[in-house]
Amino acid sequence: MTLIDRFTADYGAVKKIDAFAFLKYLADNPDASRKHGKVVLVTADTPLKASRGEGKTTTTIALIDALRSRGVDAAAVLRQPSMGITAAGSKGGASGGGKASLTHPELVDWGLCGEMGAIAAAQNLLVSFAEKAVDEGRLDDILVPRVSEVPSRSLRQITVDRGKGNVPERVVLTPTCELMQIVVLSRSMDEISSRVAAMIAGTKDGRPVVFGDFIDLWRITTILSDAVKPAQTSTLGGSPVYVHGGPFANVSIGIPTLVSVEMACALHDVVVVEAGYGTDAGAQKWLDIACREYGAQWPSAAVVVTRATTWRDDPTLSWRYPFHVRRLEGLGVPTFPLVNLWSGEDDQIDSLRDAARALGFREPVIGNLFRDGGDALAPQLDGFMEALEASTAGDVHADSHKGMPLVEDVTWVAGSAYGVPPERVRPREGFEESLRAAARLVEGVGRDIDDLALVAVKSPATMTDDDSAPEDSRTVTLKKVEVHAGAGLVQVNLTTSLTTPMPKIV
Amino acid sequence: MTLIDRFTADYGAVKKIDAFAFLKYLADNPDASRKHGKVVLVTADTPLKASRGEGKTTTTIALIDALRSRGVDAAAVLRQPSMGITAAGSKGGASGGGKASLTHPELVDWGLCGEMGAIAAAQNLLVSFAEKAVDEGRLDDILVPRVSEVPSRSLRQITVDRGKGNVPERVVLTPTCELMQIVVLSRSMDEISSRVAAMIAGTKDGRPVVFGDFIDLWRITTILSDAVKPAQTSTLGGSPVYVHGGPFANVSIGIPTLVSVEMACALHDVVVVEAGYGTDAGAQKWLDIACREYGAQWPSAAVVVTRATTWRDDPTLSWRYPFHVRRLEGLGVPTFPLVNLWSGEDDQIDSLRDAARALGFREPVIGNLFRDGGDALAPQLDGFMEALEASTAGDVHADSHKGMPLVEDVTWVAGSAYGVPPERVRPREGFEESLRAAARLVEGVGRDIDDLALVAVKSPATMTDDDSAPEDSRTVTLKKVEVHAGAGLVQVNLTTSLTTPMPKIV
Q1: Which UniProt keywords apply (chains A, B) (predicted)?
Q2: Which value does ipTM take for this structure?
Q3: Distance (Å, whole) CA B380 – CA A202
Q4: Are residues A98 and A119 in the same domain?
Q5: Nearest C-alpha of chain B: how many angstroms from A19?
Q6: What share of chain A is helix, strand, coil (3-state, %, to 5)?
Q7: Cβ contact A154–B131 (<8 Å)
Q8: How many CB atoms lie within 10 A of CB A133?
Q9: Are A11 and B13 an interchain contact pair (Cβ–Cβ within 8 Å)?
Q10: How many C-beta atoms lie closer than 10 Å to residue B264's C-beta?
Q11: Residues of chain A positioned with their CB less than 8 A from the CB of B127
Q12: Rounded CA gap, B314 and A240, in Å?
């Protein structure tokens, strides 16, 4: 029995690992045998539509199959997709496909790893206790939304206690809530407990009230007992895949849990981490939130996935892909373009290589991953493996932005991640007021809004108010501010586009 | 590897069994080695309050520990308690206690066996699709409630699509919904699929519309993939316990799933099944719904649990316990009183035996199960084991009431299960109209309301409108009718008492 076996239990077709206990063991036993894996970030071009994926998960699966076939101990860390969206039929599965598939895709697509339901139950229980607090006069309003994994536009604005208190509430999808963020960012149950205690439940006479003032935290943490354990499954090729956490990348932090990545890095030499949507979304959040503010590992390499069409076809949008690739290279991260071919596109390979060369990219990796899986990639990985081996980017300790005034921080992200300079980052009417109210709320619990980590909330399909506009007229509009004090985050809604431009689901 | 091992997988600290596949295997292989276990029903006196349990679960656990210590291959089947109620703190755990405990009570109390969340997600997805159908003009209203495992009085009446459609809805606790009933009563995924298709989603121009008309059923059944598998755990004494399904016994059918009991009967010689609340609730539902209408096994023996105080202290209520014991004996089921002593009550043993003797009961089994567990029972089981061994009650095929006019059926239950004759079973204003509307609805899908099985919905703490009244003036008021066409059930609310007299939870 290996060390990790002591912390692993079967759960039907997956295993779950008590990552908290495993990492604590390693911390308490510094001489224990362990690896020091490097993180490879898989990200993508900004998609044309939120519902049209570039193939990041398929790439992640094919990549680890390919690396393992070349003798590298590689594993992947994926997020748990939103079961409700799969069930409702709005998006296909989010677990690869064809030859680059998981052994049990239904487990991932249909939420059978279990943590979504537990997180939903825990967040809804918090709201129930808040409703009771309203009845008891302890709260005037409720600032925490109910959640459901099952989507329904009708749930966005609801009234509870109809006919009596008529309390307005809203229901959001589970992958967007603060408790999901807390589970993603915490490294122990004690930390989860403290963060839940620090969540702002609502206000009383204008002053914020935190959950720690009136609930028994063990009720929440007990519900999460199994939810905090990463699930382990595998690709059809037999490569290990860990699945844990599922925040969306447009309206939340878009990364799997920190402990699942750290656990994987203790067990494997290369850990491929998939962050959601485009480089301006999940990747930006891994770098600027997880790494800068929460101690995660800077990537030793990055793969930016695109379809043959996404990055080239629309001349007004074709600036985005090179912008992403160059930005990551500029951060010291060896960055590899990966073009995921659909059927009938094999004849484009030469023109794709020419285009990449003209843009000064590293030699792109190109293949039909659905059809050929890891076999499409393995022969093309020499440059990647060399660069990864030599990379010291994982030692980077990027500066925290803690204490940086919020607007300055947003402006910094707009510049570094979206290419828009400060003079074209503009508040919309209502923004200043929203910011002031948020700052007052945080002050009311004795904290400073500038100490919270910034989460950019915006459409997945656009980086600025209009990506088709000429470079020197692109703008970023600031819309509103919302704090998630328990998670330690401040969410700022950006750009005039809809944040969630999904087709009507249900 | 035994036969059952082929259908069993570890799930962390429990195992889950693919009961559908196991029972199908047995049906296809009639020569396969299997047992033919007898069902023992554990029920109780009508409680004084819904929140004050008599100790049925503790008894069930102690009983199988005691039987196994005497060489009998016994196992228990329990329901999954409502995690939300445990988490919210309104009721202690529902998994025994002291020496009569499960190895992992938190798994049962905190819903970590998983099916509640899946059933909730599936039922909520049905409602989401119904809301979409309303938007599309396919439905005028929605007759299926949303569900939550997390209780909150504020959720009983809500409005969705606030500010636009303003659609009234309600949220009920997951253990009370029709989909839970379907999971409890179905013996295959195909059956679940057919029943979900037959659920009435709402009406259009006054005519009922079933889900089968407009949803893809595989979306629902896939969510339920693991929920249909009974969980297996054990007592501290090492006795096998199966946990599956959790409908409440006051507002629903109060029994564990039929397949979990049938599976257990194929594996063990004695299967102790716990039904919820008193003999007038869960036991009545096992006998008159599960056995008469759905092919379940008539009990070979019954144990009626009471505390030392419940059955004797209030002279106006002391008729209830003997009524229950005699009724079951009258149905041909050897019935054993079991008095569950609390601390400090040991000195009552003699007077308890005297009282039992005076009432003509079989020799009661008496013990402090929390303190002594199975050891308290084992020396007292001679009579029980003899009667069980000799019992042929399990061969009883009680007549179905299919086709019996609904009011006649309700009257029959009021007489046989509550001791109230037909002339004192009275409709309240609005009942007739409710019945007509329900009958019309069912007719609209080509079925007859009299063919549905009757579920009596009433307070757990009273059998009649006033149990303290003299026998010749006790009445049962009929309040309203609601059909669960998918499950094949018709629910009739009875008595003037509140159906759910729980203290305010959250």
Answers
A1: ATP-binding, Ligase, Nucleotide-binding, One-carbon metabolism
A2: 0.82
A3: 57
A4: no
A5: 14
A6: 40, 20, 40
A7: yes
A8: 22
A9: no
A10: 29
A11: 152
A12: 64
